[in-house]
Amino acid sequence: MAKALMIQGTGSGAGKSLITSALCRLFSDQGINVAPFKAQNMALNSSITAEGGEIGRAQALQARAARVESTNDMNPILLKVSGESGSQVIIQGKVHTTMKAREYYAFRDEAWKAVAESFKRLSREHDLIVIEGAGSPAEINLMDVDIVNMAMAKHAKAPVLLVGDIDKGGVFASLYGTVKLLGRDSRYIKGFVINKFRGDRAILDPGLDMIRDLTGKRVIGVLPYVHDIGLPEEDGLALARKSDAGSQKSKKEKIKIVVVRLKYISNFTDFDPLELEPDVEVLYSEKPTEIENADIVIIPGSKNTVEDLLLLKKKHLDDSIRKAHGKGVQIIGICGGYQMLGRRIYDPFCVENSEKEVNGLRLLNIETTFNATKTTCRVEAEVLRNVECRVRSAEWKIGDILKGYEIHMGTSTGDIGLFQLRRVSPDSELVKDGSMNGNCWGTYLHGIFENDSFRQGIINQVRIAKGLLPLDSPVNYSEFQEKALDRLAAMVRDNIDMGFIQRMIA
């Protein structure tokens, strides 16, 4: 079995995911065959592996940091909240069923079998596994059903670093309380990391001595608060920060993109590349005035498309989207948003909702029918020649290949044919995708804005419409991510005792 190191946190948002990414990059830099692992993840941002399975977006990023291909085994249990019906349970990349919390906890032993099986396979293929915990290991009401924190540390015989977020306040109480609530299991914790520190380090130092005296464990690193690290984040806390940051952007920004903020928004990391463009402001909003005065309105993916569509109508945001469309604003739908833009959505088996049939926004001439099968695959997409005349102004190069991935329930029919997709699978299935109607278009393709020339073409289309000159953007999104991972790794390396960590896993 491979050696293992585990990163746990005093709570959600402490920084476990990014620290795991940094360590994966640092160990990879040393020539170690390292891989990430998270037994159970609850996230609405997900990614597709080469096997066509669905895992948490964070584990895909950590695999990239480790310079290895992401696999289903890196995140054997993924939970995606679906609303009142509970959470969709994805096991080793494939949908298992939808469960409420009590049902899932009763399923614990079956889930653990999948976790142990995946960890065993991953251990055969790598020399070191960096394991990420979830939430807090000291949730005393859940310890008997734990599969992701101390249960995993014991199984992997992994030393644990416990991360605390000082920016939230009470970091020493959180570290001390976690150790005390864990009882004998706290022996797996070998050191502490304090994250998001800003201020005078001299004021902090006495606390570092006191927490060591109180617990017998020392703080091996104090990481600074880093703004805009430039890497995808996977939860709603990150989305709240994006909304706040967007509203404070400079008035000098030329292109305003509004992503409609849905209750069950998923894969909002789709829009990270747009935020990097120097002449673009991205807002996540449900304010009618911001939607109606945008240059581009995007309806994102959703884990509960029908429920979010009904909520849009209840808030009269459908009227705002139509007003924007009538003014010539470019309306874009991605995945669930694409389905909402169609004429109707049918859910005969109540896959998502008790509503078996609901009217869409009727801006695209398509209809969608949900079924029990989930499409998950990486794809290559080619812009079709039969839409050349309609997209020339967007500077989409006919015949160019775009890369992305599909994650969706349901099939859309009607005026389909914006792209031809080659699903990356043994049989390389070819399917048509996407629809366009004037200044409105949609697609199932996640990750489409990571294609640099395509993204820049969309922005330049708006610039030209506003009487501005097109720009050649300097942003190469793939290179940007690599550099961001290197910066993150350097920051961790410079502020943590790597010698201590090396000795733990020796």
How does this structure look, described?
The structure is a single chain. The chain is an alpha/beta fold. 34% of the residues lie in helices and 28% in strands. The strands form 6 sheets. A 6-stranded parallel β-sheet has the order 2-9-1-10-11-12, sandwiched between helices. Strands 15-13-16-18-26-25 form a 6-stranded mixed β-sheet. Strands 19, 20, 21, 22, 23 and 24 form a 6-stranded mixed β-sheet that branches. Strand 6 (77-81) and strand 7 form a beta hairpin. Helix 1 (16-29) packs parallel to helix 2 (57-66) and helix 6 (171-182) runs parallel beside helix 7. The relative contact order is 0.12.
Can you give keywords for this protein?
26 strands, six-stranded parallel β-sheet, six-stranded mixed β-sheet, globular, alpha/beta, 506 residues
Label the structural class.
Answer: alpha/beta
Overall mean pLDDT score?
A: 91
Oligomer: single chain
Low-confidence stretches: 244-249, 388-394
* Strand order, sheet with most strands: 2-9-1-10-11-12
Distance between the termini: 14 Å
- The proportion of residues forming helix, as a percent range, comes to 25-40%
Q: Total number of β-strand segments?
A: 26
How much beta, percentage-wise? 25-35%
Number of helices: 17
Our Rg estimate from Cα atoms comes to 23 Å
Shape: globular
**Largest sheet at a glance?**
6 strands, parallel
Kindly summarize this structure in a few lines:
The chain has 17 helices and 26 strands.
Topology:
Elements: E1 3-9, H1 16-29, E2 34-37, E3 40-42, E4 46-48, E5 54-56, H2 57-66, E6 77-81, E7 87-91, E8 94-99, H3 101-106, H4 108-125, E9 128-132, H5 150-156, E10 160-165, H6 171-182, E11 189-197, H7 201-215, E12 219-224, H8 236-247, E13 255-260, E14 265-266, H9 272-276, E15 280-285, H10 288-292, E16 296-299, E17 301-302, H11 305-314, H12 317-326, E18 330-334, H13 336-340, E19 344-346, E20 357-359, E21 366-383, H14 388-391, E22 401-414, E23 419-423, E24 430-433, E25 435-437, E26 440-443, H15 452-465, H16 477-495, H17 498-505
Parallel strand pairs: 1-9, 1-10, 2-9, 3-6, 10-11, 11-12, 13-15, 13-16, 16-18, 18-26, 19-21
Antiparallel strand pairs: 4-5, 6-7, 7-8, 14-17, 19-20, 21-22, 21-23, 23-24, 25-26
Helix pairs in contact: 1-2, 1-16, 6-7
